[in-house]
Design brief:
By secondary structure, this protein is α/β, with parallel strands linked by helices. The chain contains nine helices and ten strands.
Length: about 260
């Protein structure tokens, strides 16, 4: 029975990974979340599963994370979201906690087999996956990078930190295009084909599970794209995400003022 750990199980991708893994009685799942109450609201049937263990608490609780990731085949690091704001380091903190946890396990048992770590990142981080939009869409590309500047900065630092662990860990960077709630379309994995649009959380989750369950060394220390087999719908939240991100990038004091009043996330 393979055992998997999910770090960030209350997010959209984490929820899909959890749901899909539990479709097979052969899988055991260890789930980390900050709030067990929130997880149970999102997954009300979770308590009925005998092959699920939940670990809730602070992300910087190294022993808690170590207990969660110990004796697993793979760790799904799916922390993050659509927000982008100054000082953002959620993904970095998650990576550092998982590495510290695995270091603790290794220190206590030098022979312990390390799991594959799969970090949910973005195709924007992968030079091989940059589509040639032509000059007409260069302005849109510029706005995208500005609107998600701090989120991309967090991902970049997180990826760089994980690459420093190349001598003893096995990491795969998952590089999808824009994410959206959508029905599964089926998926393909790629090492070099740029995304042509959005991809559903369900298909990204399925692609991550394929990488985690397999033994394909091509995916070690490389970026893997997940492409839908048919077009996913447009994400209607894009204008809001763009507006909020551009506000945080160009007018941080105004963004923080609105955030303190609960007007933006």
């Amino acid at each position: 029975m393979p055992t998997y750990a999910i770090i960030g199980a209350t997010g959209s991708t984490g929820q899909q990974i959890l749901t899909q893994l539990l479709q097979s009685p052969d899988n055991k799942v260890k789930v980390y979340c900050r709030s067990k109450t929130k997880l149970e609201k999102l997954s009300p049937k979770l308590a009925a599963h005998q092959n699920v263990d939940v670990y809730s608490g602070a992300l910087n609780d190294v022993q808690l994370i170590a207990d969660c990731v110990a004796n697993t085949k793979a760790v799904f690091l799916v922390i993050g979201g659509n927000a982008s704001y100054p000082g953002m380091r959620m993904v970095q903190d998650g990576c550092q906690s998982v590495v510290a946890a695995l270091s603790t396990i290794k220190a206590n048992d030098a022979g312990a087999k390390m799991p594959r770590v799969l970090l949910l990142s973005s195709a924007t981080m992968n030079p091989r996956m940059q589509p040639d939009h032509g000059r007409a869409l260069e302005a849109m590309k510029f706005l995208l990078k500005a609107a998600l500047f701090y989120a991309y900065e967090d991902l970049g630092h997180a990826e760089n930190f994980l690459r420093l662990q190349k001598g003893w860990l096995n990491v795969t960077f998952i590089h999808p295009g824009g994410l959206v709630e959508d029905e599964p379309k089926g998926h393909t994995l790629t090492l070099d084909k740029p995304p042509e649009g959005f991809v559903g959380y369900a298909d990204v989750a399925a692609g991550m599970i394929d990488v985690a369950a397999g033994e394909d060394e091509r995916y070690s220390w490389d970026g893997v794209g997940v492409l839908p087999k048919s077009s996913a719908r447009f994400n209607p939240e894009v204008p809001l995400i763009f507006g909020r991100g551009l506000l945080a990038y160009y007018l941080p004091p105004v963004y923080w003022g609105f955030r303190s009043m609960g007007l933006v996330q």
